[in-house]
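Sample 3 of the quickstart, ligand nickel (II) ion:
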Amino acid sequence: MIDTHAHLTSGEYSGDLAAVLRRAREAGLNAIIAVGFDIPSSRASVQLSEVEEDVFAAVGVHPHDARTLDEAALAALEDLCTNPKVVAIGEIGLDFYRNLSPRRIQERAFRQQIRLARRLQLPIIIHDRDAHRRVIEIMRSEKVCCGVMHCFSGDINIARQALSMGLHISFAGPITYHGRRAADIVRRIPEDRILIETDCPYLAPAPHRGKRNEPAYLRLVAERLAELLGKTVEEVDAITENNARHLFKLPE
Ligand code: NI
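Result:
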Protein backbone atom coordinates (compact mmCIF):
# COMPACT_ATOMS: atom_id res chain seq x y z
CA MET A 1 0.00 0.00 0.00
CA ILE A 2 1.14 3.52 -0.71
CA ASP A 3 -0.26 6.62 0.97
CA THR A 4 -0.10 9.09 -1.92
CA HIS A 5 -1.00 12.15 0.16
CA ALA A 6 0.15 12.72 3.74
CA HIS A 7 1.05 15.97 5.45
CA LEU A 8 3.74 14.37 7.57
CA THR A 9 5.40 17.68 8.38
CA SER A 10 2.25 18.98 10.07
CA GLY A 11 2.70 20.20 13.63
CA GLU A 12 0.20 17.48 14.60
CA TYR A 13 3.07 14.97 14.39
CA SER A 14 5.79 17.06 15.97
CA GLY A 15 5.74 14.94 19.12
CA ASP A 16 5.54 11.42 17.70
CA LEU A 17 6.46 11.25 14.01
CA ALA A 18 8.75 8.24 14.56
CA ALA A 19 5.87 6.28 16.11
CA VAL A 20 3.52 7.38 13.30
CA LEU A 21 5.98 6.08 10.68
CA ARG A 22 6.48 2.83 12.61
CA ARG A 23 2.73 2.20 12.76
CA ALA A 24 2.47 2.94 9.03
CA ARG A 25 5.12 0.31 8.25
CA GLU A 26 3.46 -2.19 10.58
CA ALA A 27 0.16 -1.57 8.77
CA GLY A 28 1.81 -2.59 5.50
CA LEU A 29 2.62 0.73 3.89
CA ASN A 30 5.53 0.47 1.47
CA ALA A 31 5.81 4.18 0.72
CA ILE A 32 4.32 7.53 1.73
CA ILE A 33 4.29 10.75 -0.28
CA ALA A 34 4.78 13.72 2.05
CA VAL A 35 2.93 16.64 0.49
CA GLY A 36 3.79 20.30 0.96
CA PHE A 37 1.31 23.17 0.93
CA ASP A 38 3.70 26.14 1.04
CA ILE A 39 7.45 26.66 0.72
CA PRO A 40 8.40 25.78 4.33
CA SER A 41 6.28 22.61 4.38
CA SER A 42 7.57 21.64 0.94
CA ARG A 43 11.15 22.06 2.11
CA ALA A 44 10.42 20.09 5.30
CA SER A 45 8.84 17.29 3.22
CA VAL A 46 11.97 17.05 1.08
CA GLN A 47 14.17 16.98 4.18
CA LEU A 48 12.08 14.17 5.67
CA SER A 49 12.30 12.21 2.41
CA GLU A 50 16.08 12.46 2.59
CA VAL A 51 16.22 10.66 5.95
CA GLU A 52 13.34 8.18 5.51
CA GLU A 53 13.88 5.83 2.58
CA ASP A 54 10.18 5.03 2.11
CA VAL A 55 9.09 8.68 2.20
CA PHE A 56 8.90 10.67 -1.04
CA ALA A 57 8.03 14.35 -1.41
CA ALA A 58 5.66 16.57 -3.35
CA VAL A 59 6.35 20.31 -3.37
CA GLY A 60 3.89 23.07 -4.10
CA VAL A 61 1.84 26.01 -2.89
CA HIS A 62 -1.78 25.29 -1.92
CA PRO A 63 -4.53 27.63 -3.19
CA HIS A 64 -5.02 28.93 0.37
CA ASP A 65 -1.44 30.25 0.24
CA ALA A 66 -1.53 31.27 -3.44
CA ARG A 67 -0.68 34.88 -2.66
CA THR A 68 2.72 33.74 -1.32
CA LEU A 69 3.75 32.34 -4.71
CA ASP A 70 6.04 35.11 -5.98
CA GLU A 71 9.08 34.76 -8.25
CA ALA A 72 11.34 33.79 -5.35
CA ALA A 73 8.90 31.09 -4.22
CA LEU A 74 8.67 29.67 -7.74
CA ALA A 75 12.46 29.56 -7.94
CA ALA A 76 12.59 27.83 -4.54
CA LEU A 77 10.13 25.18 -5.75
CA GLU A 78 12.13 24.55 -8.87
CA ASP A 79 15.29 24.24 -6.80
CA LEU A 80 13.64 21.68 -4.47
CA CYS A 81 12.68 19.62 -7.52
CA THR A 82 16.32 18.89 -8.27
CA ASN A 83 16.16 16.44 -5.34
CA PRO A 84 15.51 12.93 -6.73
CA LYS A 85 13.05 12.16 -3.90
CA VAL A 86 10.66 14.83 -5.24
CA VAL A 87 8.05 12.96 -7.28
CA ALA A 88 5.32 15.56 -7.91
CA ILE A 89 4.27 19.21 -7.79
CA GLY A 90 1.51 19.60 -5.22
CA GLU A 91 -0.69 20.24 -3.72
CA ILE A 92 -1.91 22.89 -6.11
CA GLY A 93 -5.33 23.86 -7.39
CA LEU A 94 -8.34 25.97 -6.52
CA ASP A 95 -10.38 26.29 -3.34
CA PHE A 96 -13.57 28.29 -3.89
CA TYR A 97 -15.02 27.03 -0.62
CA ARG A 98 -12.82 28.97 1.75
CA ASN A 99 -11.39 31.51 -0.73
CA LEU A 100 -8.44 32.29 1.54
CA SER A 101 -6.64 33.79 -1.45
CA PRO A 102 -8.60 35.77 -4.09
CA ARG A 103 -9.73 33.58 -7.00
CA ARG A 104 -7.66 35.46 -9.56
CA ILE A 105 -4.52 34.90 -7.48
CA GLN A 106 -5.37 31.22 -6.98
CA GLU A 107 -5.78 30.73 -10.72
CA ARG A 108 -2.48 32.41 -11.51
CA ALA A 109 -0.61 30.28 -8.96
CA PHE A 110 -2.29 27.13 -10.28
CA ARG A 111 -1.23 27.91 -13.88
CA GLN A 112 2.33 28.84 -12.89
CA GLN A 113 2.81 25.58 -11.04
CA ILE A 114 1.23 23.51 -13.81
CA ARG A 115 3.76 25.06 -16.18
CA LEU A 116 6.62 24.29 -13.81
CA ALA A 117 5.47 20.67 -13.55
CA ARG A 118 5.26 20.36 -17.32
CA ARG A 119 8.72 21.81 -17.80
CA LEU A 120 10.16 19.41 -15.19
CA GLN A 121 8.02 16.50 -16.43
CA LEU A 122 6.48 15.88 -13.01
CA PRO A 123 2.89 14.86 -12.27
CA ILE A 124 0.69 17.30 -10.35
CA ILE A 125 -1.41 16.70 -7.22
CA ILE A 126 -4.63 18.67 -7.57
CA HIS A 127 -6.70 20.17 -4.76
CA ASP A 128 -10.21 21.03 -5.98
CA ARG A 129 -12.78 22.27 -3.50
CA ASP A 130 -16.03 23.67 -4.93
CA ALA A 131 -14.12 24.68 -8.06
CA HIS A 132 -14.62 21.63 -10.28
CA ARG A 133 -15.53 23.40 -13.51
CA ARG A 134 -12.77 25.98 -13.30
CA VAL A 135 -10.13 23.39 -12.34
CA ILE A 136 -11.04 21.35 -15.42
CA GLU A 137 -11.03 24.45 -17.69
CA ILE A 138 -7.62 25.57 -16.51
CA MET A 139 -6.09 22.11 -16.76
CA ARG A 140 -7.48 21.73 -20.25
CA SER A 141 -6.13 25.08 -21.41
CA GLU A 142 -2.73 24.26 -19.87
CA LYS A 143 -2.74 20.81 -21.53
CA VAL A 144 -2.31 18.88 -18.29
CA CYS A 145 -1.80 15.18 -18.96
CA CYS A 146 -0.33 13.69 -15.83
CA GLY A 147 -1.45 13.91 -12.22
CA VAL A 148 -4.08 13.06 -9.66
CA MET A 149 -7.32 14.59 -8.46
CA HIS A 150 -6.59 14.29 -4.75
CA CYS A 151 -9.35 13.39 -2.29
CA PHE A 152 -11.82 13.42 -5.14
CA SER A 153 -15.11 15.13 -4.32
CA GLY A 154 -16.61 15.79 -7.75
CA ASP A 155 -19.34 13.93 -9.57
CA ILE A 156 -19.01 11.35 -12.33
CA ASN A 157 -19.06 14.03 -15.01
CA ILE A 158 -16.02 15.78 -13.50
CA ALA A 159 -14.31 12.41 -13.02
CA ARG A 160 -14.84 11.57 -16.69
CA GLN A 161 -13.32 14.87 -17.81
CA ALA A 162 -10.30 14.35 -15.56
CA LEU A 163 -9.91 10.77 -16.79
CA SER A 164 -10.09 11.92 -20.42
CA MET A 165 -7.07 14.15 -19.76
CA GLY A 166 -5.17 11.12 -18.48
CA LEU A 167 -5.47 11.95 -14.79
CA HIS A 168 -5.79 9.57 -11.85
CA ILE A 169 -8.49 9.82 -9.18
CA SER A 170 -7.59 9.43 -5.52
CA PHE A 171 -9.89 8.44 -2.67
CA ALA A 172 -9.45 9.17 1.03
CA GLY A 173 -11.33 8.81 4.33
CA PRO A 174 -14.60 10.35 3.04
CA ILE A 175 -15.40 7.14 1.10
CA THR A 176 -15.83 5.51 4.51
CA TYR A 177 -18.43 8.12 5.53
CA HIS A 178 -20.91 7.99 2.67
CA GLY A 179 -22.72 5.13 1.16
CA ARG A 180 -24.14 5.14 -2.33
CA ARG A 181 -22.56 8.25 -3.79
CA ALA A 182 -19.00 7.02 -3.19
CA ALA A 183 -19.93 3.60 -4.53
CA ASP A 184 -21.34 5.03 -7.78
CA ILE A 185 -18.18 7.01 -8.51
CA VAL A 186 -15.64 4.42 -7.41
CA ARG A 187 -17.13 1.69 -9.59
CA ARG A 188 -16.92 3.87 -12.67
CA ILE A 189 -13.23 4.72 -12.43
CA PRO A 190 -11.01 2.42 -14.52
CA GLU A 191 -8.97 0.17 -12.24
CA ASP A 192 -5.65 1.47 -13.51
CA ARG A 193 -6.50 5.08 -12.54
CA ILE A 194 -7.45 4.63 -8.88
CA LEU A 195 -5.18 5.78 -6.05
CA ILE A 196 -5.66 5.90 -2.28
CA GLU A 197 -4.45 8.37 0.31
CA THR A 198 -5.12 9.53 3.85
CA ASP A 199 -4.67 13.36 3.50
CA CYS A 200 -3.61 13.04 7.14
CA PRO A 201 -3.77 14.67 9.66
CA TYR A 202 -7.21 15.55 8.20
CA LEU A 203 -10.18 13.40 7.15
CA ALA A 204 -9.61 10.36 9.34
CA PRO A 205 -11.60 7.39 8.04
CA ALA A 206 -14.38 5.84 10.10
CA PRO A 207 -14.25 4.85 12.96
CA HIS A 208 -11.64 7.54 13.69
CA ARG A 209 -13.61 10.34 12.03
CA GLY A 210 -12.96 13.70 13.69
CA LYS A 211 -9.70 12.54 15.30
CA ARG A 212 -6.12 12.97 14.07
CA ASN A 213 -5.55 10.88 10.97
CA GLU A 214 -2.30 9.04 10.18
CA PRO A 215 -0.92 6.88 7.34
CA ALA A 216 -1.59 3.59 9.21
CA TYR A 217 -5.32 4.26 8.75
CA LEU A 218 -4.90 3.91 4.98
CA ARG A 219 -5.89 0.27 5.49
CA LEU A 220 -9.42 1.43 6.39
CA VAL A 221 -9.66 3.32 3.09
CA ALA A 222 -8.38 0.26 1.21
CA GLU A 223 -10.89 -2.00 3.00
CA ARG A 224 -13.78 0.29 2.09
CA LEU A 225 -12.62 0.51 -1.51
CA ALA A 226 -12.38 -3.28 -1.65
CA GLU A 227 -15.93 -3.55 -0.34
CA LEU A 228 -17.22 -1.04 -2.93
CA LEU A 229 -15.40 -2.77 -5.79
CA GLY A 230 -16.20 -6.32 -4.72
CA LYS A 231 -12.51 -7.18 -4.45
CA THR A 232 -10.24 -8.38 -1.69
CA VAL A 233 -8.17 -5.82 0.18
CA GLU A 234 -5.04 -7.57 -1.14
CA GLU A 235 -6.23 -6.98 -4.70
CA VAL A 236 -6.94 -3.32 -3.96
CA ASP A 237 -3.51 -2.94 -2.33
CA ALA A 238 -1.77 -4.42 -5.35
CA ILE A 239 -3.76 -2.39 -7.89
CA THR A 240 -3.42 0.97 -6.16
CA GLU A 241 0.23 0.46 -5.26
CA ASN A 242 1.06 -0.39 -8.83
CA ASN A 243 -0.83 2.69 -10.05
CA ALA A 244 1.00 4.94 -7.58
CA ARG A 245 4.42 3.53 -8.54
CA HIS A 246 3.64 4.11 -12.17
CA LEU A 247 2.30 7.68 -11.84
CA PHE A 248 5.00 8.91 -9.46
CA LYS A 249 7.77 6.77 -10.99
CA LEU A 250 8.68 5.28 -7.61
CA PRO A 251 11.44 2.68 -7.47
CA GLU A 252 10.25 -0.95 -7.19
NI1 NI B 1 -3.77 17.75 1.43
